[in-house]
Design a protein that fits this description.
Low-confidence stretches: 2-43
Helix content: 25-40%
CATH superfamily: Alkaline Phosphatase, subunit A
CATH class: Alpha Beta
Strand order of the largest sheet: 9-6-10-2-11-14-5-15
Structural class: alpha/beta
Shape: globular
Radius of gyration: 22 Å
Distance between the termini: 28 Å
Length: 445
């Protein structure tokens, strides 16, 4: 590669449900329902893996380099060629460079949320939060649903065992980072959350293990008892929740997908023996096992040097800590999906909540910058090796084909064969479109 310097009879029933499930570590929070809405009959993709980089990677130092900008903008990194002719990226993404012929870069993403929490909510829901641009914003019963929850709601009649999973931890920024919940759709549609490092030697999703005193027959008896209590009573979203729970507790297919230790050592090494790499490998196993939507979070939010929020030492942190595992894991995921014949039916999305300032600050860092940043997409019919939109000469603002998180949301739902104009309703009955943006048709074909 060439290198260029640049840089819930009802209380009795509820008690029974709680007794049936509570012993397995499955809680039943308050539920809220949206109105009926049906997706189209055909889907264009089968699954999606979304990788979220908490803190905000520097677009200029990764996938939107500015080799001709002044040193105060272009920074310390060089620019390298990729497998996509004419597409250049930052020098420390050498593994990703070789799969760029199967990846598209959007270089004109933007929104107006300047704080981590509000920006994360917009990036992970495709909607501007009702709470505005607040750093300590948290999800509540009026919040917009995250992608996994919205999709689970749209698939509610398909009786999927596990439509959506999030891993390997819940993200926090003082409060739980918004954009990770089902919001006003209710907890029946909450993504199944894994909270353990897939790279740990003792990795095990204990929630799916029956207590030793509960046999499969005993679990079936409990399920039949709850079903009997449900006869001639109105259905509710609570039914969705506990039916899903019972299915998971009785599902060998799900447990098999989670047995990452079954993977050959060479495959595990290929992804990288670290939290992020093994999270992507587990994501691949899950979609291969029938999970439709997986979110993999990168960035440990209680560790100031383990996320992408590089206000200081931007270049050393990106080069030595942040880029290596993501470069290896992302490239391995694309190649592995492709080799297994899964890439065309699996859309991969990689993004942070925003980018970083074009100009380097006094601490050799870059600050929050939502005015222009990048998103990577691969598989699912993407035109590999393409670039959509462009930023200006210093990466400050979109110059052509500006894209919003709403557009990304519309694109995602459309690729699943779901009309983004479909209405969902909050707990007050207020209607909302599933996504407010426009699908980016130019990325596909």
């Amino acid at each position: 590669m060439k290198m260029f310097r640049s840089a819930s009879r009802h209380s009795r029933r509820r008690v029974l449900q709680l007794g049936a499930l509570g012993g397995f570590g499955l809680t039943l929070p308050r539920l809220f329902a949206a109105e009926n809405s049906q997706p189209p009959q055909t889907s264009k993709i089968k699954s999606c893996i979304l990788s979220f980089y908490y803190g905000g990677p520097s677009h200029i130092d990764t996938f939107d380099p500015k080799p001709r900008a002044p040193a105060s903008v272009r920074g310390e990194f060089a620019t390298i060629e990729t497998a996509a002719p004419g597409v250049f990226i930052g020098e420390h993404h050498r593994m990703t460079a070789r799969v760029m012929d199967r990846v598209a870069i959007v270089r004109s993403m933007h929104h107006s949320m300047r704080n981590h929490n509000s920006a994360a909510a917009e990036a992970l829901c495709g909607r501007i939060s009702g709470g505005g641009d607040l750093e300590l914003l948290a999800d509540n019963a009026l919040s917009f649903p995250c992608y996994g929850a919205a999709l689970s709601y749209m698939w509610r009649d398909e009786q999927l065992e596990l439509p959506s999973v999030a891993l390997p931890h819940v993200m926090y920024n003082v409060v739980q980072l918004p954009g990770q919940s089902a919001g006003f759709l209710g907890s029946a549609y909450q993504p199944f959350q894994i909270e353990k490092d897939p790279n740990a030697a003792d990795f095990n999703v204990q929630t799916l293990n029956l207590p030793s005193e509960v046999s499969g027959d005993r679990l079936a008896q409990r399920r039949q008892l709850v079903a009997a209590m449900d006869d001639n009573t109105p259905s509710s979203d609570l039914n969705t929740y506990y039916e899903t729970a019972f299915s998971l507790l009785n599902s060998e297919a799900v447990r098999r997908s989670l047995r990452i230790g079954d993977e050959p050592d060479a495959v595990r090494e290929r992804y990288g023996r670290n939290r992020f790499g093994q999270s992507l490998l587990l994501a691949r196993r899950l979609v291969e096992g029938g999970v439709r939507f997986v979110t993999a979070y990168d960035g440990i939010t209680n560790c100031q040097t383990c996320n992408w929020d590089s206000h200081a030492d931007n270049f050393a942190r990106h080069r030595d800590v942040l880029i290596p595992p993501t470069d290896q894991g992302f490239a391995a995921l694309i190649e592995d999906l492709d080799e297994r014949g899964l890439l065309d039916e699996t859309l991969v999305i990689a993004l942070g909540e925003f980018g970083r300032t074009p100009r380097i600050n006094g601490g050799s860092g870059r600050d929050h910058w939502p005015d222009c940043f990048h998103v990577l997409l691969a598989g699912g019919g993407i035109r590999g090796g393409s670039v959509y939109g462009a930023s200006d000469k210093i990466g400050a603002y979109p110059e052509t084909d500006a894209v919003t998180p709403g557009d990304l949301a519309a694109t995602l739902f459309s690729r699943f064969g779901i009309d983004p104009a479909t209405e969902i309703h909050d707990i007050t009955g207020r209607p909302y479109r599933l996504a407010e943006g426009r699908a980016l048709a130019g990325l596909f074909g």
